[in-house]
Amino acid sequence: MRDSGVISGVSVAHDRASVREIEAASSDDVQTVVERLLARDGVSEAFSLQTCNRAEAYVVTDDATDGRRALDDFAPDVRDGSVRHMDHEETLRHLMRVASGLESLVLGEDQILGQVKAGIEAAREQDAIGPMLEDALMKAVHVGERARDETAINEGAVSLGSAAVRLARGELDAPIGEVEALVVGAGEMGTLATKALASVDVGDLVVANRTVANARHLAREVPGVSKAVGLGDLGGRLRDADLVITATSSPDYVVTPNQLDDAGETMLIDIAQPRDVDPDASDLAGVRVHDIDDLETVTDRTAERRERAASEVEAMIDEEFDRLLAAYKRKRADEAISSMYEAAEHVKRREVSTALSKLESQGDLTDEQRETVESLADALVGQILAAPTKSLRDAAGDDDWTTIQTAMQLFNPDFGDLGASESAGPSGPSIEFSGEPPEDLDREALEGEVPRRVLEQLSDD
To answer: How far apart are CA 217 and CA 94, in angstroms?
Structure first.
């Protein structure tokens, strides 16, 4: 994969979208999303991230228009106002904010960093991560780790599981010590919810999971769990529970209205994505259903307590963003410079060979004379390209990509109608070269008066 291009991103997240919309945007798993994006015209790299609160995709293309086109149908069933399209620089900053927890429903929560890393590994398995996304994603992970190591952004942060428990404690009529609770799901989110319930000494705590062995493992790990059951026993357990927290990874509803017909007063808090509880269950008498959207009020209070840490992380992101952008710019300039020197080196080798052959025809050359000719050619290349090299690097630093293109056309390293091809890089065009220099090269322009006199002197010797 070429070390060039522009990153485009699209996001459907809790700050703009509802749970239903995020669910619609997550209808395919990340592997399927990445595979589909890689098949689009012009896409060289792809990455996707799906969590309870967001569904996102990123692509690398030569041109930003191609990137936007590749992502246009990412969430066809979601209203436009819930879909955020991001250009290259927005994407770089957004990835850092996501990994550091600033974009999470629970400000500073730690799970997102692991989810980003898991998404990276999934994309790598499909050979979808190239130089552009590698730099962007590794920088995001670095910022996420720095944020948690150097600031208090995650101190006192609640998980969605503990936020659900806080919500329940605020709304349940009975004291928490008298509540019969059921957690459906023994994965990462279910484990967090189970631990949160155990920490407040809930009256009775049952864990249900499709794989009973995993539920039993969680029951052994968390003191306070009274029983572990399979989903086959879910109907009876729902009738007994006052509080139910669902957190499975099932693509289908796990809890249906039929299972709750005679459940009586029951609060269900669904923190799964896609949702575990059929929304129609909320129509039943005595049944209250909450989803992730309802946790906003709980998490807002924790966000207020960490505003200072969030400001520190914002400053950190500004700093790391500038470093990443500078690195991209330097790479783009160096890529153009390398191509320019490569073209010049090709001409140099050919012209030196031609000159040495002519001189050999006039008499044997000494090794010292050969070295003089070759040194002359090297010096010419270095001196001729020194100014445009500096100009290219200065222009990249100033986002002046017009100067870069003009310089490349002025020195015409591609010689003739094979000219440079232009494609959009991170902040402007990147340059690629191909083809061979034609035979009608203007040697006078390349050699100049001084090198010609030196060659003539060598011939006289």
So the answer is: 37
Instruction: List phi, psi (to 5°) of 209.
Output: -150, 150
| Number of residues assigned to the chain | 461
The number of beta carbons lying within 10 Å of the beta carbon of residue 411 is 15
381 — pLDDT class (breaks 50, 70, 90): confident
The annotation status of 316 as a binding-site residue, yes or no, is no
The alpha carbon of residue 372 and the mean position of all alpha carbons in its chain are separated, in whole angstroms, by 52
1 is in an annotated binding site: no
How do residues 162-206 score in pLDDT, each as one tens digit?
888 888 988 998 888 999 999 999 988 899 899 999 999 999 999
Burial of 261: CB neighbours in 10 Å, binned 0-12, 13-18, 19+ = middle
The H or E element containing residue 133 is helix 131-150
Encoded amino acid at 389, one letter: T
How, if at all, do strands 180-184 and 54-61 pair?
A: unpaired
Q: What is the DSSP string of 323-391?
A: HHHHHHHHHHHHHHHHHHHHHHHHHHHHHHHHHHHHHHHTSPPPHHHHHHHHHHHHHHHHHHHHHHHHH
Residue 399, marked binder: no
pLDDT reading at 416 higher than 80: no
Q: Which helix (H) or strand (E) holds 181?
A: strand 180-184
Sign of CA dihedral 329, 335, 338, 343: negative
Kindly state the tokens that stand for 233.
Answer: 């026993």
**104 has binding-site annotation:** yes
Distance between CA atoms of 202 and 217, rounded to whole angstroms? Answer: 19
The response to whether 109 counts as a known ligand-binding position is yes
* 189 annotated among ligand-binding-site residues: yes
SS3 295: helix
Structure tokens at 442: 């203007």
The reported pLDDT for the residue numbered 435 is 34
Which of the residues are catalytic? 52
- Domains of the chain in sequence order: 6-156 (3.30.460.30), 160-303 (3.40.50.720), 332-460 (no CATH)
Indicate the pTM of the whole model: 0.64
